[in-house]
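Request:
You are asked to prepare a plain-text protein record giving the amino acid sequence and the backbone structure tokens, at your earliest convenience.
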Amino acid sequence: MGHADEVWWDATCAALGDRRRARTLRRVRERLQSHVGQSWSAALGSGLRQAAGDLVALASAGYRDMVAGDVAVTVARCAALPWVIASDDTCAYDFTSQRGKQGMGRLRSKGRGVWGHSVLALSPQGQVQGLLDTQFWTRQGPALAGQRRARDYAAKESRKWELSLERVQELLPPGLVVVIVSDRESDIYRYIIAPRGAHVHLLLRLTHPRRLADSEQDLVTTARFAPVVGAGWIDVPAERGRPARQACVQIRVSEVEVCSPRNGWSGPASTVRLWVIAAREENPPAGAKRLEWILASTRPVVSLADAWEGLRIYALRWQIEVLHRTLKKDGLRVERLQHKSALAVERALAIYQGVAADMLHLVQVARADPARPATDFLASDALTVLALSTRRPVTTIGQAVAAIAVLGGWPGHPRSPRPGVQVVSTGYHDLVVMVTGYRLARGLPHGPVCYNDTG
């Protein structure tokens, strides 16, 4: 058992309180990871389906218990880094078509389903380290339009950002610098002023024209007309049919003192000091949407280099979007889950989140550190099978992931796009089948094919 496996096992046993349940959960994860594209029932098979159903239906276990081992491994990886980026975002899981499910809640439209909020840990270079936290909830009752301000803050969904902040501070080693990056939905005054250690910083995209203590202009206007400190190019990823491109932006920086809101604010009047980075594309291409990011940072931004660093970190936020896309579209397709209750769905979703984060970690390590020994991640007999399959030595993680991707249908030509999570997951299924046959033919014991080291 590798170090990461020991960390995962100890944390999972402690969370579930039973070694048999931990053993079941490990088998469930292995099957889901090696049967990407199949439904929960088909992936687990008749021999494991009942035990897995009993596991996610446990009254004594919550969704965080299902990922306690994954989180422990992530924390161990983060402890070895100089500092950490934590990207968090919300995702809707739509089960409208499954009318028999109990406890489903409202989505944004007329749909029914579950809401989830995830935190993904990244290295300073943007490599996924794993899942740090997850939350799930359902919206019950009629829409409360016009009544949101009257609701107590503790009962509002917007508190999810502060809960994630608390969880990140609780989990990561004391003193480890972490930058929590989030999109416009997190532009909430209570979240911005929530208690934080001196080593914990927020970087969020602004949307509200907040009052300033020393200016008649609002925060957004002040950011847009702040002094220009430089210009440069930002990579704009492809989205909703729009191709990827580069945007030439002007960069503006300002230090501001933001006041508490006039409306809907129940706390004492207060202010908070922020540093604002505005990046605006002055001449977008014809037909392209203008790129404009207005970011607020609790960490000082005093130079052009600081501003670029903030923009770079914010651009890495999209990794949480990749996680959600992997869960819903690229292979896992979790919205097909057939569990009858919302609680069981939430626990199954949590397990899938851990699996998806692990696959992202493996693919990105292969890209960023391809010379790393493959034995850090794959069993030795799995490497033997890959070498026999490709008729080439497989000793590094870069070679191993490329060989797995070829099994999944990746062309493998020098000009081929780098393999992604979906093709690697598909190839991993074939690898597990091949390794199982290899072990059976030689009378070798069963064991994990893939495990992610914390080193």
